[in-house]
Design a protein that fits this description.
Blueprint lengths: L1 E7 L4 H12 L4 E7 L4 E6 L4 H10 L3 E4 L8 H34 L17 H18 L2 H11 L5 H28 L3 H8 L4 H25 L1 H9 L3 E6 L2 E6 L8 E4 L8 E6 L2 E4 L1 H4 L5 E3 L4 E2 L4 E2 L4 E7 L5 H14 L6 H27 L4 H14 L2 H7 L1 H13 L2 E3 L2 H7 L4 E5 H5 E12 L3 H13 L6 H10 L8 E6 L3 E6 L2 E6 L1 H6 L8 H9 L3 E7 L2 E12 L3 H10 L3 E5 L4 H11 L3 E3 L7 H12 L2 E5 L5 H6 L2 E5 L4 H6 L2 E3 L5 H36 L3 H4 L5 H20 L19 E2 L3 H4 L1 E9 L4 H12 L4 E7 L4 E7 L4 H10 L3 E5 L1
Parallel strand pairs: 15-22, 15-24, 22-23, 23-27, 24-25, 25-26
Antiparallel strand pairs: 1-3, 1-4, 2-3, 5-6, 7-13, 8-11, 8-13, 9-10, 9-12, 14-26, 16-21, 17-18, 18-19, 19-20, 20-21, 28-30, 28-31, 29-30
């Protein structure tokens, strides 16, 4: 079972590490991922109640509660919480600065010769000077008391965090200031103005107030920046409909979107959003699907066409039957994918997580050592305390904790805007390491929809097409649609057909104006004693290109030939060229014969192809490529690609593909556009580069800042860091990390134009299929060219046969076959064609 929890009270990576440790210790929990940025936690568990998990979080010093249904957190509720937090911080900042400014004036104004009240001058007024600063500090302490409540609570639970550092540092300064007041009072009471003056100059009230104010101000900037990282999901949520018009017994009723049920009839007028996924049962229109696919042009929709919730009806009034509602709609599932990806952890964050877990205890230890060392070197108590406080407040576990999740959230959100859905942070990270991308052919590189490619005829072309389309109109063959589309474009009227027949494995025939017309393969023509030699060169040429070739005959006369082939997607060539420009190898994996695969590979400029691969062999081919190249991605759309998508390091599913393929994929391309593969790789590389920049800064900042604050350079260079500047530096480091990650929102893919020439295509031998051998068959009964054509066709149809050469004079057939083709299979094919096999050698 997988649930998503909201966790409150976390302020730094030490917090998230503590929560993660606490929950992972719960028996029955198999996996836990805490996202500091989203204040969320995803837990996979079984045989344990969610209340036990919440109790473990609370024992660690934090609060947790389940999200909405199915573990999803309402983004609107989350946004409201962030707004409330920002409003609270803004109030705290105003109050803090209102008291900090006069406090700083009193404590430091005299150093700069600023006008000063007489009651604060001189050692004799030291008590007034100190007590006034104390009073001005108290409101700042109170308004920011959250640091003390959370900081000391987690410290006492044994899981100190950033708030603990702030609480210890500022309270140390406050306590020392109070101690100084007592010393001043004692000194004045005994007439010792020198002692009173010395304590008067070392109060540190302004440091306590300044630390809290600057930290709060930094947190305000950080929270405001983090809010922007969630804009992508927020914008997607705003695109969904809030209400729908339901048709009930002929009456239209406007209801909340939550009340819509599967099967409801929804009325959608021009300009309105389609409320849920459904099917049009009345009317036609064009739909703006740009919110989902990024496609700017409206898509024509008619009765029985599917529509998607949150897209916009542009023209006519339509009646839609709801098929998916609520969290089951396409848009809701996309939002859930983006949320889950943003909440997951990338492998690159593991180092930062490990360091964060021990960071705060280590810093506290360093602060204590710093204090002890400076005291041992015979420096004053106030000097040693100042050094220790600087160490506490300059250390920034936040920068470490935010380095990865903030970039992941912005990156996955940006991907969603472009129609690229990353299912996890791991997918986003691994994609940048891919060295080879394998493409399925049909439906991936090609559109999966056959189109009419070539016509050769002795008739006038439209007349010929009229005959072909009329016959195909009566056929249910998948290729018929491509021919009828062309006839429709040319406004060709169809003939009525009589005595229509569909002959399995051969073609179709029927009568037009009492004349018999046939459309089919060479076998059909041969059995009708129709010679195809006139158009044979065309047939051979198109067959080599992977086209389906059909002869057309009228009575006993061949009148033409047509070829139909799958069309290559318009973006395939550019996508392949761009991937090669990025240094990625491209390979096509296909179950088609080698000639057809080679033709497609050459046309799109792909480097290599593997042909005649069965679905269950695709995973094996992926593993071989992994052994050669390393990280391999697979792009596919069909059920037969699911195993290969799983076997690859990264599976990329085409959005228009099967549900099985999409489920098996790590990345889903909503637009079904191969250019999005290029964009996904470039986005991944940009995100990882950004994460490395953030981690470098976080490590560099702490590696330099802590020694500087501890006074390592004081004896040699005289460098000493005031706690106030340490607090400012700490706040700005977190803001820097978040701001750097926000640059990803401006990510734009860089695409090159298609290369005019492509490298030579290489065939990668599919070993299981190409262990070939030659067999010579002696066949009795072959008398003419028609016989030769029948035998050749029969043998070529046997699975595993790659070539057939007939010697009519010698009555032999030389067959090139794979090793697993039996003599019995070859013999049966010839016998079924009407001939006798004498021997097979």
């Amino acid at each position: 079972m997988k649930e998503k929890f909201q966790v409150t009270g976390m302020t730094c990576s030490a917090c998230s590490a503590a929560v993660e440790r606490a929950v992972s210790k719960v028996e029955g929990v198999s996996k836990v991922e805490v996202n500091l940025l989203a204040n969320s936690m995803q837990v996979e568990y079984e045989n344990v109640e969610s209340s036990v998990i919440i109790e473990a979080v609370e024992k660690a010093g934090y609060h947790a509660f389940l999200g909405s249904a199915k573990g999803k957190v309402d983004q609107r509720e989350s946004k409201s919480t962030v707004d409330e937090e920002l409003a609270s911080m803004k109030q705290r900042i105003i109050v803090s600065f209102s008291f900090l400014i006069p406090l700083m004036y009193i404590s430091m104004g005299h150093m700069y010769g600023l006008p000063f009240l007489e009651i604060f001058h001189g050692a004799e007024n030291a008590l007034t000077f100190a007590f006034t600063q104390f009073l001005l500090t108290l409101p700042v302490i109170y308004i920011n008391r959250k640091y003390y409540i959370v900081g000391f609570k987690t410290l006492f639970h044994g899981t100190p965090n950033m708030d603990s550092l702030i609480a210890i540092g500022s309270s140390s300064a406050l306590v020392y200031g109070i101690y100084a007041i007592y010393q001043i009072g004692y000194a004045l009471g005994h007439g010792n103005l020198e002692v009173a003056h010395s304590y008067m100059m070392d109060l540190y009230f302004e440091s306590a107030a300044m630390i809290l104010t600057l930290i709060t101000f930094g947190k305000f900037l950080e929270t405001r920046s983090k809010r922007k990282t969630q804009d992508a999901i927020g914008k997607m949520m705003e695109l969904t409909s809030k209400e729908a018009t339901v048709l009930v017994e002929g009456e239209e009723r406007v209801v909340a979107i939550e009340e819509v049920r599967v099967g409801d009839l929804l009325v959608v007028r021009p300009g309105e959003k389609i409320p849920t996924d459904g099917v049009i049962i009345e009317g036609s229109t064009s739909v703006d699907e740009s919110a989902l696919t990024g496609e700017s042009l409206p898509i024509e929709k008619h009765v029985s066409d599917k529509v998607i919730g949150a897209t916009i009806n542009k023209q006519g009034r339509i009646l839609v039957e709801a098929t998916r509602v609520g969290e089951d709609t396409t848009f809701s599932q996309i939002i859930q994918l983006v949320e889950e990806a943003a909440s997951s952890k990338a492998p690159i964050s593991k180092l930062a997580d490990k360091i964060s877990g021990i960071f705060v205890p280590t810093v506290i230890t360093i602060a204590l050592i710093t204090f002890a060392v400076w005291m041992a070197l015979d420096y004053s108590f106030s000097f040693s305390l100042s050094m220790a406080i600087s160490v506490l407040v300059i250390s920034c576990p936040c920068a470490l904790g935010l380095a990865t999740p903030v970039a992941i959230m912005v990156g996955t959100g940006k991907g969603a805007e472009m129609g690229i859905l990353m299912k996890s942070a791991e997918s986003l990270e691994i994609t940048h390491e891919v060295k080879c991308i394998v493409f399925d052919k049909t439906g991936t590189i090609t559109s999966g929809k056959p189109v009419l490619k070539n016509i050769h005829t002795k008739l006038e072309e439209n007349t010929f097409l009229q005959v072909v389309a009329s016959l195909e109109n009566a056929s249910k063959h998948p290729l018929a649609h491509s021919i009828l589309e062309v006839a429709k474009e040319r406004n060709i009227e169809l003939f009525p057909i009589t005595e229509f027949q569909s002959i399995a494995g051969q073609g179709i025939q029927g009568k037009i104006n009492d004349q018999v017309y046939r459309i089919g393969n060479a076998t059909m023509m041969s059995q009708a004693s129709i010679l195809v030699s006139t158009y044979q060169p065309y047939a051979d040429q198109y067959s080599q290109l992977g086209h389906s070739v059909m002869y057309v005959a009228r009575e006993e006369e061949l009148i033409g030939l047509i070829s139909v082939a799958d069309s290559i997607k318009s973006s395939s060539k550019q996508a392949i060229a761009n991937l090669q420009h990025l240094g990625i190898h491209t390979v096509m994996l296909s179950g088609d014969n080698a000639k057809s695969a080679k033709a497609i590979a050459e046309e799109v400029g792909i480097e290599a192809y593997i042909a005649e691969v069965l679905p269950n062999q695709k995973a094996d081919e992926i593993r071989k490529l992994q052994a050669t190249y390393g990280r391999v991605a697979m792009v596919g759309d069909g059920v037969n690609d699911a195993v290969a998508l799983t076997a690859a390091d990264i599976g990329i599913g085409i959005g228009a593909g099967s549900d099985v393929a999409i489920e098996a994929a790590d990345i889903v391309l909503v637009n079904s556009d191969l250019l999005d593969v290029v964009k996904a790789v470039q986005l991944s590389r940009s995100v990882i580069k950004n994460i490395k920049e953030n981690l470098f800064w976080a490590f560099f900042y702490n590696a330099l800042g802590i020694p500087l604050a501890a006074g390592v350079f004081y004896l040699s260079l005289g460098l000493k860091l005031n706690p106030m500047f340490g607090a400012a530096a700490m706040s700005l480091s977190s803001v820097f990390v978040v701001s750097n990650a926000l640059r990803l929102r401006r990510f734009r893919p860089h695409l090159i134009e298609v290369m005019s020439t492509h490298p030579e295509v290489v065939e990668i031998v599919n070993e299981k299929e190409v262990k070939s051998m030659s067999k010579v068959m002696v066949i009795e009964g072959m008398m003419c060219m028609h016989c030769q054509a029948r035998v050749e066709k029969a043998l070529a149809a046997v699975e595993g046969v790659s070539s057939v050469v007939i010697d009519l004079a010698a009555k032999t057939a030389t067959v090139e076959v794979s090793a697993d083709v039996s003599n019995e299979a070859l013999t049966k094919a010839v016998v079924d064609a009407g001939y006798e096999v004498i021997s097979v050698a």
